[in-house]
Amino acid sequence: MPSVPAPRILALVPCAGSGSRAGPGAPKQYRPLAGQPLVVHTLSALQRVARIQRLLVVVAPGDATLAPHRRGWELADCGGASRAATVLAGLAHLRATGAGDADWVLVHDAARCLVSAQDVDLLIDRCLPDAVGGLLALPVADTLKREAAGRAVATLERGGAWLAQTPQMFRLAALHAALARHAHSGFAGITDEASAMEAAGHRPLLVRGSWQNVKVTYPEDLDFADRVLRNRRA
Asked: Which residue, of 31, 45, 60, 224, has the fewest CB within 10 Å?
């Protein structure tokens, strides 16, 4: 009988958002950071992971911002109105261009430019033998407060609470199915890939990541990431 090819490891970076919380100007993934657009640093970090065999960046229709910076990764301009819609479109693109249902897909935030290859390799090592997959995350260390009108109104239990990061690694077919079942509702309640998998009855692994793997969201985050990247280069 013909041998079944081993599942491949692919990476998908949704890059179609506006990044409005980073302040006025270009979308945050394209803001200049240590001499390059922010997302180029993100892609370079993923390219240092030898086991990733394809790296797909999904941008908004007609967005050619990354074309001059392209080196070794693929571009698809099929991004949607939300992160989940963009990831779903990216998964469909991977399928249409040769990816298999059993292939693993690591979905990573465009704005997490400080991720280390070591943490991604750890996630891969932990997920490959698992039936579901998982995500990088950190246990909550600080006290959690519920807010109303700018004031703390309750202290929340932090035991067992984790902060989700990316990459998040799941089988292509399983993740596509988990996201597709929420498309009709505009992906209400789906904030990341793991939440879609949880809603489908799966229990993703939590793999401890690093505090440096921050998601650049606010203007001060851009300053922090710029300093870290320049220090690493030095």
From this structure: 224
